[in-house]
UniProtKB/TrEMBL annotation:
Descriptive protein name: isochorismate synthase
Every Chorismate-utilising enzyme C-terminal domain range: 92-332
Lineage of the species this protein comes from: Bacteria, Pseudomonadati, Bacteroidota, Flavobacteriia, Flavobacteriales
Organism: Flavobacterium silvaticum
Top EC group: isomerase
InterPro entries referenced in this protein's UniProt entry, alphabetically: ADC_synthase (IPR005801), Chorismate_C (IPR015890), IsoChor_synthase (IPR004561)
Catalytic activity: chorismate = isochorismate
Domain of life: Bacteria
Family from the record: Belongs to the isochorismate synthase family.
Known EC number: 5.4.4.2
Swiss-Prot/TrEMBL keywords: Isomerase
Molecular function, one GO term: isochorismate synthase activity
């Protein structure tokens, strides 16, 4: 553990390529450090880091030193952050939400996911943030990715994009958000149920031609830290000619992070969000010839020079209220802020 911590700290300092991660509900923390030894053979297993829109980065496992531990020292508790926000950011976000609602009413698309980023000054190291996330979010996919060309990204996402082994696969439709207030058996308003149904329908329609069997659970409440979402579990079996790569390509970006129809939503996002999402709402995880375990990069932050950029978004439909949507992004930012000591 101490040796790994040293290697992580040295890797951050040297901007070298490595990743540390833990899957939802598991204890095992896996570290992959790219080494300088000459590559003996190109392996088929890798860890992939893909932006919202653009080229993937990959760590080839045959090119990495790999460590596993079930004993990460991670007994941290969450802080209760103060609810604060910047008024200019609020006004800007509300104005693009209002514009999106108008565009939906004009029929340009049915749903779009709009996001923003917030910069905070950190009072702790990337290693500490990662350790705290492990402890506070046992049911999230927690990761710290570092690479000379992408910088350092840390997150605790509730959303699996695709898990597959040979022809079997699992995915999920996750959308709709409310604050967790001590009780998971909550009522969901129509707006939230509709918003999540659009995601389920999209995944069904996209996967149907590529699969032999496709099974959907009933939508149910899923807790992600201080938030609740609606989730439908989706599983099935691919057709012989389909690969897991085809499925991932067809799914990403789902309307949980982009919108519907996809192309018009992407256009609106690019014209109106006013910043580059980079790897936020992209995906990351293990990929091999006949298996994969990929997650959507949400509840994440980019760390550099003692600062963190926090990324958060929410689904906009015809019924959206701009101020409510802004506060949904504030609530999502608390997922990260709960583990950050912020220097103000
Ligand atoms: C876009 C984010 O989350 C996604 C959007 C949700 C929503 O609109 O309610 C809920 C879960 C995620 O699929 C985010 O966390 O930034």
């Amino acid at each position: 553990m101490e040796a790994i911590q040293k290697r992580i700290e040295a890797g951050l300092e040297a901007h070298s390529a490595f990743v540390i991660y833990r899957k939802p509900g598991e204890k095992k923390v896996i570290s992959l450090f790219r080494n300088d030894r000459p590559m003996e053979s190109q392996g088929s297993d890798s860890f992939v880091f893909t932006p919202f829109d653009g080229q993937s980065y990959e760590l080839d496992l045959s090119d990495c030193d790999r460590f596993e531990t079930n004993q990460w020292d991670a007994k941290w508790s969450a802080e209760t952050p103060e609810l604060s926000f910047d008024l200019d950011q609020k006004l800007h976000f509300e104005s693009i939400v209002a514009k999106a609602v108008d565009a939906i009413k004009e029929g340009r698309f049915d749903k779009v996911v709009l996001s923003r980023k917030e910069v905070v000054t950190l009072g702790q190291s990337a290693f500490e943030i990662f350790s705290r996330l492990l402890s506070v979010y046992p049911n999230a996919f927690v990761s710290l990715w570092n690479h000379p060309e992408t910088g350092c990204w840390i997150g605790a996402t509730p959303e699996r994009l695709l898990k597959g082994q040979n022809k079997e696969f699992q995915t999920m439709a996750l959308a709709g958000t409310q604050q967790f207030q001590g009780d998971e058996s909550v009522e969901w308003p129509k707006k939230e149920r509709e918003e999540q149904r659009l995601v389920t329908d999209y995944i069904w329609n996209t996967l149907e031609p590529l699969t032999q069997t496709l099974v959907l659970s009933e939508p149910h409440t899923h807790r992600a830290g201080n938030l609740l979402h609606i989730k439908t579990d989706i599983s099935g079996q691919m057709r012989d000619a389909t690969t897991l790569g085809d499925l991932a390509k067809a799914l990403h970006p789902t309307p949980a992070v982009c919108g519907l129809p996809k192309e018009n939503a992407i256009l609106f996002i690019k014209e109106n969000e006013g910043y580059d999402r980079e790897f936020y709402s992209g995906f990351l995880g293990e990929r091999g010839e006949n298996h994969c375990d990929l997650f959507v990069n949400l509840r994440c932050m980019k760390i550099s020079n003692g600062q963190a950029e926090l990324f958060m978004g929410c689904g906009i439909t015809a019924e959206s209220n701009p101020e409510k949507e802004f506060f949904e992004t504030v609530n999502k930012s608390l997922t990260m802020k709960r583990v950050l000591k912020i220097n103000s």
